[in-house]
C-alpha cells in the first residue's frame, strides 16, 4: 500500500479531487446494493482487521455466492420435460452460457463463490493491476476465449475504488460482443460507482455495500484494506 507519509511536496493521487457523496449515488440506475441481513453479518467479519487470510478468503467466497444469487435472479429460463421417479413434469434450466470474469487477483475468491452457485459457469481470467502512483489499471493477463457463446458474463472484483479497473474490465469484455454484461463487487466508493455507471450505463452493477469515499492514496474508507493481499496473505 502506498503510504501517505512521503515528501510533503509530492501530490497524492486523489488529493484535491472532488468526490460525490453516498447520497448522490444511492439512486443511480441499474445499481443494486444488497439489503440482505446475512450479507451485513458477513461484511462485519470481512472488514475486521483481525480477520486472518484463511477466514477472509472463505468469507469472500461466501459473499461471492450471495452476490451471485442476487445478480442471477433475472436470468432467462428454458422449459424442458423431465421424469421424476413418479411421472413426467415440466422443469426449467438456465438458458444459454454464463461466464464469470475474475479480475486478478482479488476477483478469484468471488469467482469461486459464484461457481458454488452455478458450477458449469465458464471462467475467463483477466489480470489487471492498479499502479498505486497513478491509480491507472494495467492489463497483464488475458485468457478470454475468442469463440464466444455466452448469454451473459459477470466481471467480479471485490473493490470498486476509482473505477478504473472495472471500466477497463468491461471494455475488454465488450470487445467479445456478449449480449449482456454485469459487474459484481463487494465494496464500492461513490466516486468509482459513479464513474463505472457513467462509462457503462448499459450494465447492471451489484455490490454488497457502498462506502464513504476514497482516501488520498485511493483506498476505500472505511473499506477493508487491500482485498488481494488479505485473501492471499501477501502484506
Ligand atoms: O477501482 P480501482 O481504483 O481501479 O481499484 C480497484 C482495483 O484495485 C484492486 O486490485 P489491485 O490492483 O490491488 O490488484 P490485486 O487484485 O492483484 O491485489 C482491486 O481488486 C481492483 O482490481
Ligand atoms: O481499498 C481498496 C482499493 C483498491 N483495492 C483494494 O484492494 N482496496
Ligand atoms: Mg490489491
What does this structure look like?
Its cofactor is Mg(2+). Pfam families: UPRTase. This is Uracil phosphoribosyltransferase. Belongs to the UPRTase family. Helix 2 runs antiparallel to helix 3. A hairpin with a 6-residue loop joins strand 6 (126-130) and strand 7. Helix content is 31%, strand content 27%. By secondary structure, the protein is α/β, with parallel strands linked by helices. It has a single domain, classed as Rossmann fold, CATH 3.40.50.2020.
Give the tags.
single chain, 235 residues, alpha/beta, Rossmann fold, nine-stranded mixed β-sheet, two-stranded antiparallel sheet, 13 strands, 27% strand, disordered N terminus, binds uracil, binds magnesium ion, GTP binding, nucleotide-binding, uracil phosphoribosyltransferase activity, glycosyltransferase, GTP-binding
Provide a brief overview of the structure.
This protein is α/β, with parallel strands linked by helices and 235 residues long. It contains seven helices and 13 strands.
Helix/strand class: alpha/beta
Write down the Rg: 19 Å
Strands, total number: 13
Q: Which small-molecule species are bound to the chains here?
A: 1-O-pyrophosphono-5-O-phosphono-alpha-D-ribofuranose, uracil, magnesium ion
Q: Roughly what is the average pLDDT, rounded to an integer?
A: 95
Instruction: List the helices and strands in order.
Output: HEHHEEEHEEEEEHEHEEEH
Q: Total domains, how many?
A: 1
**Beta fraction:** 25-35%
What sort of overall outline do the alpha carbons produce when their principal axes are compared? globular
CATH top level label: Alpha Beta
Number of helices: 7
CATH topology: Rossmann fold
**Major beta sheet, specifics?**
9 strands, mixed
Low-pLDDT parts are: 1-7
Instruction: Give me the CATH architecture, please.
Output: 3-Layer(aba) Sandwich
Distance between the termini: 9 Å
- Residues in helices, as a percent range: 25-40%
Amino acid at each position: 500500500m502506498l503510504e501517505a507519509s512521503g515528501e510533503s511536496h509530492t501530490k497524492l493521487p486523489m488529493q484535491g479531487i472532488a468526490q460525490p457523496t453516498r447520497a448522490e449515488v444511492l439512486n443511480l440506475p441499474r445499481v443494486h446494493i444488497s439489503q440482505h441481513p446475512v450479507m451485513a453479518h458477513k461484511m462485519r467479519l470481512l472488514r475486521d482487521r483481525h480477520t486472518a487470510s484463511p477466514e477472509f478468503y472463505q468469507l469472500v467466497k461466501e459473499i461471492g455466492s450471495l452476490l451471485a444469487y442476487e445478480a442471477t435472479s433475472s436470468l432467462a429460463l428454458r422449459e424442458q420435460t423431465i421424469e421424476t421417479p413418479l411421472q413426467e413434469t415440466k422443469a426449467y434450466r438456465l438458458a444459454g452460457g454464463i461466464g464469470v470474469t475474475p479480475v486478478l487477483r482479488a476477483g478469484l475468491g468471488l469467482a469461486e463463490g459464484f461457481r458454488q452457485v452455478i458450477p458449469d459457469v465458464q471462467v475467463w481470467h483477466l489480470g489487471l493491476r492498479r499502479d498505486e502512483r497513478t491509480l491507472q489499471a494495467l492489463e497483464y493477463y488475458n485468457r478470454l476465449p475468442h469463440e464466444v457463446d455466452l448469454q451473459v458474463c459477470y466481471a467480479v472484483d471485490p473493490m470498486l475504488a476509482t473505477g478504473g479497473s472495472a471500466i477497463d474490465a468491461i471494455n475488454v469484455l465488450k470487445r467479445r460482443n456478449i449480449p449482456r454484461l454485469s459487474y459484481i463487487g463487494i465494496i464500492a466508493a461513490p466516486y468509482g460507482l459513479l464513474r463505472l455507471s457513467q462509462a457503462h450505463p448499459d450494465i447492471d452493477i451489484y455490490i454488497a455495500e457502498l462506502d464513504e469515499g476514497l482516501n488520498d492514496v485511493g483506498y476505500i474508507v472505511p473499506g477493508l484494506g487491500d482485498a488481494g493481499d488479505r485473501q492471499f496473505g501477501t502484506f
